[in-house]
Amino acid sequence: MLSTQEVSTQEVEGQQTVVADAPFSSLSTRMHQMFPALTSAEIARLRRFGEIGHWKAGELLFETGHTGPGMFVLLEGRVKIYQRDGIGREVLINEHGAGHFLAEVGQLSGRPALVNGMALSAVEALLIPPTGLRALIVAEAELGERIMRALILRRVSLIEKGAGGPILIGNSSDAQLVMLQGFLSRNGHPHSVIDERDEDALRLIEQFAAQQEDMPLVICPDGSVLRHPSTPELATCLGLLPDLDDSHVYDVAIVGAGPAGLATAVYAASEGLSVIVLDSRAPGGQAGASSRIENYLGFPTGISGQALAGRAFVQAQKFGAHVAIPVHVTALKCAESPYRLELKCGGQITSRTIVIASGAVYRRPALEGLDRFDGRGVYYWASPVEAKLCKRQEVVLVGGGNSAGQAIVYLASHAAKVHVLIRRSGFEATMSRYLIDRIRSLPNVFVHPNSEVGRLEADESGLASVGLKKPLPDGVDHFDTRHLFLFTGADPNTDWLRTCGVQLDAKGFVLTGTGADGVAACDLATTVEGVYAIGDARAGSTKRVAAAVGEGAAVVAQIHQLLAASAGEAVALGA
């Protein structure tokens, strides 16, 4: 989803240009885009997508934490938009009258409302449900573009304010709190954090009789309290998980919401196929954790992985794709068609075709005691959450690929010093030239070739020191640091396929290009008919965002061929 470090598309002389990573203070200059007034002629064009409704003064049109009914186009009366969080604090956001519309990007998929909307007087409005809103944005191109831009900017503004989201209370260095913050940030969900030593936090901890084992404490928008929750528990409380219909048969089920999976969802849904995307963490996959991608076509100033994933996520929803995050797929059952995906939560998804876009999982070096430092000094990506933790401190980063390079550049703008450990003599064989040149220009980045981590040492607060396998030429054998970033590669996330018989290579990547009968088949087809593999999980794939997106587009053409052939066979049998 969208991050508070990105600015959405803006139009200049009829051409769309993209500006990334600009500060959100620019939102104050874009109020006309965030809250455009519709003309009577434009409202007339919208009427076919919804129905007229009436609300009395004092009545709520929508309420924080409750499923949003869609977009309201005000015809008469005024509505107050305000935030009321889980502890009863109320903040006025805006007031709107006739000609304005009320919604934000979550209403494309009927997500819970993030704010309250109350009628200040008798209100007459056109209510456009999520299905109608998606149809409107597609059918009314120019008007739909203006509405979509407004919906995105409104979500961005809510994220900036922390409006409508949960309140997280805990210690900023607590691993669980860091994980929950990361989950909410990468999913573009507003939230606020209160340090457990803060006066307000102490009052709330006492009010809810919270013990140390209950921390972090999470107060959801509806006032319910979660004690030391997991991410699925938090997602359930926030209404992020859609209702999954076990009986519905999709045309395409995509496992993984990285660039490859989201590209498949956009192309398949835009061509009328019924699509669901499942991911256990957040949109974007590994690419979503990249602080800045500068060599992706069409973004000359660069774009963060989270911003790119956020736009693709919204685009997939625009065309009607269902997205379920966080949902963990445990097995693929393909003994008979349609195929079944079994979920950790106990449900299942049924689909005529399956696209494996599950990418890779971060590789964990063989270091004694590494697990106990997860979120307590050891990190596998560099997001604003981690950057804030290590501000003006020394950090150590291990890795020499492009993901490592992007993280080095990003962390250098926050940390006092960044020590980089690489096993090779240099970056040239594994990193793009533009990143190498950028790193060389950074005065607070120190690259240590032919070096490896040998041990981790702790104190009562967590990680305290990173020891080396052998001393550096200057005799240094360790770094005193509380922050270690590991970018040491990734292994394919394909264990869930072993129940199906999809053929993997010796390293666990999915083999494609050969049909089950040994006859050459489509490049992206696996050894099981109707099951395809794309992106980093596929053997022989190019580990680049552009390549993953290309495979996502290509696989849809192959799916169309298979579904068309199956439909033809069904007609023939029926005859």
Automatic annotation (TrEMBL):
Residues 34-154 form the Cyclic nucleotide-binding domain. PROSITE patterns: CNMP_BINDING_3. GO terms for molecular function: oxidoreductase activity. InterPro entries: cNMP-bd_dom, cNMP-bd_dom_sf, FAD/NAD-bd_sf, FAD/NAD-binding_dom, Ferredoxin-NADP_redctase_2, RmlC-like_jellyroll. Pfam families: cNMP_binding (PF00027), Pyr_redox_2 (PF07992). Keywords: Flavoprotein, Oxidoreductase. The keyword Flavoprotein applies. Gene3D superfamilies: FAD/NAD(P)-binding domain, Jelly Rolls. This is FAD-dependent oxidoreductase. It comes from Paraburkholderia panacisoli.
